[in-house]
């Protein structure tokens, strides 16, 4: 009789311990992330934007500070630009070097493009 209840108890403990262990997916889903944080991740990750753009200095492409400032002044739309639906307004002479990246940005969701926009604007506040 004692052995049976010990087994029952062990079985109960074991089933509790294995249930509801959070998976990596649900962890990522629950993690709160602001658009700027997502934008930064994309900018330095799959967007590969960092290789030509620096927040404050011109490297191959204009700085994010400059892009943000000009887009605000001219009331431009960064999301439309990244979808290749709006013309360049920052440095049109260098446009071909930027154009190749639309292969990446056109595969991004609106949420991701808006996050990139929010990240760019975060430097020109
Ligand atoms: C191979 C280098 C390169 C990469 C990588 C790159 N850019 Fe650019 N980008 C440029 C150059 C050069 C310009 C200036 C030409 C222009 O204004 O279109 C530019 C301009 C821009 C502009 C201003 C466009 C305008 O109105 O003139 C935005 C916004 C921009 N880039 C965003 C991004 C984002 C977001 C990414 C990543 C998804 C990215 N760039 C990746 C080179 C690059």
Please describe the structure with a list of short key phrases separated by commas or semicolons.
single chain, mainly alpha, Cyt_c-like_dom, Cytochrome Bc1 Complex, Chain D, domain 2, metal-binding, Cyt_c-like_dom_sf, 125 residues
Question: How would you portray this structure in words?
Answer:
- By secondary structure, the chain is mostly helical.
- The chain has a single domain (34-121), classed as Orthogonal Bundle (Cytochrome Bc1 Complex, Chain D, domain 2).
- Helices cover 56% and strands 0% of the residues.
- The protein has eight helices and no strands.
- α3 (35-44) crosses α8 (110-121).
- It starts with a helix and ends with a helix.
- The mean pLDDT is 87.
Into how many domains do the coordinates divide? 1
Helix content: 55-70%
Please count the helical segments. Answer: 8
Low-pLDDT runs: none
Could you please say which CATH topology applies here? Cytochrome Bc1 Complex, Chain D, domain 2
Any idea what the CATH architecture is?
Answer: Orthogonal Bundle
The helix-strand sequence is HHHHHHHH
Radius of gyration: 24 Å
* CATH superfamily annotation: Cytochrome c-like domain
Could you tell me the number of beta strands? 0
